[in-house]
Amino acid sequence: MPELVFFSGTMDCGKSTLALQIEHNRSARGLVGMIFTRDDRAGEGKLSSRLGLVTDAVEVEDGQDLYAYLVDHLSQGGRADYVIADEAQFLAPGQIDQLARVVDDLGLDVFAFGITTDFRSKLFPGSQRLVELADRIEVLQVEALCWCGARATHNARTIGGEMVVEGAQVVVGDVNQAAGEVGYEVLCRRHHRRRMTAASARAAALSPDVLPVPSA
Ligand SMILES: [Zn+2]
User: Fold this and answer.
1) Contact 6, 137 (CB under 8 A)
2) Which of 20, 85, 92, 187 has the highest CB neighbour count under 10 A?
3) CA 48, CA 39: separation in Å to the nearest integer?
4) Residue 4 domain flag
5) In tens digits, what is the pLDDT along the chain, a chain of 216 residues?
6) What's the 4 CA to ligand 1 centre distance in angstroms?
């Protein structure tokens, strides 16, 4: 039976690496995948992982009907034996419904990869719809770690290293941001609740409270 599978996790948990691994394993067996992505760090029409692997993909646009796209592709003689949707948190809920229809009406496996919650620890709409519709949800086992060493379960947005909790749900940024720019960091829930990033923890450790009193 074909399935809609949601591989979920935080940033940096290896989602895109697993997506590329699934693509590799299936193409090695002669299968052809349709790969959708949106706002990948490597640029439009790319699916990339932090480990440096990259493959071509179809960049999903606002309002695009993914079911109709596949039907068109197949009716024009194209081939697709399965579907990968990376960065699925950025898809609209309706597009997730279209992916479920691809499973049910076209009989294809759909593997969706996405971050579950945003920097405010609220579900992304696309991820919410996946939780509602998926046949199976897999929480990725490659665990990202908080700076304290605990399992990182939450995504923080930072500006200049300080965690922020307000702003648009989607802002492009990366873990290696320049000072003062928007970045992201994975944290354990405790440090997400306390808004304590690696930078603010370091600053706290260096505060005058814990330094020896300088001699005058
Ligand atoms: Zn922590």
Assistant:
1) yes
2) 85
3) 11
4) yes
5) 999 999 998 877 778 888 898 998 899 889 999 999 988 777 888 888 877 788 889 999 999 999 999 999 999 999 999 999 999 999 999 999 999 999 999 999 999 999 999 989 899 999 999 999 999 999 886 678 899 988 888 889 988 888 998 888 887 665 565 657 888 888 999 999 999 999 888 887 776 555 555 554
6) 33
Take residue 4 and report the two structure tokens written for it: 């809609």
Residue 75 CA to ligand 1 centre (angstroms) = 51
Split into its structural domains, the chain has a count of 2
Ligand 1 centroid to Cα of residue 162, in Å, is 15
Choose the catalytic residue: 3, 23, 61, 87. 87
Out of 120, 142, 164, pick the residue that ends a domain. Answer: 142
Question: Is 0.85 surpassed by the pTM of this model?
Answer: no
d(CA 216, CA 213): 9
Same domain? 174 vs 122? no
- Let me know if 44 is a catalytic residue: no
Q: How far away, in angstroms, is 48 Cα from ligand 1 center?
A: 27
